[in-house]
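Lecture 7 notes: from sequence to structure.

We start with a single chain of 67 residues. Read the sequence below before looking at the structure.
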Amino acid sequence: MPKMKTHRAGAKRYKITASGKILRLKAGNKHLLAHKSEQRKRRLTGMQEISVSNLAKVKAELPYRNK
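Now the structure, written as C-alpha cells:
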C-alpha cells in the first residue's frame, strides 16, 4: 500500500496536543480589526478545541497525527 498523504492546509491549520486533542485558531482576528472592540479582539485570541461535528473531517486530513 502507498503512504497516505497529509492534507497540507489542515496540517498548518490545526495543532495536536500531547493528549490528542485537536486545536484551532478562532476566526475573525486577522484583518478588519479597526472597528472591533478591544474586548472582542481579546476574546478571539488563543486556541480552541474543534467541535465534535468536525472531528471526523479533520482526522481524515491528518492521518499521521499522534494517537
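The domain at 8-61 is CATH 4.10.410.60 (Factor Xa Inhibitor). Keep this in mind for problem set 3.
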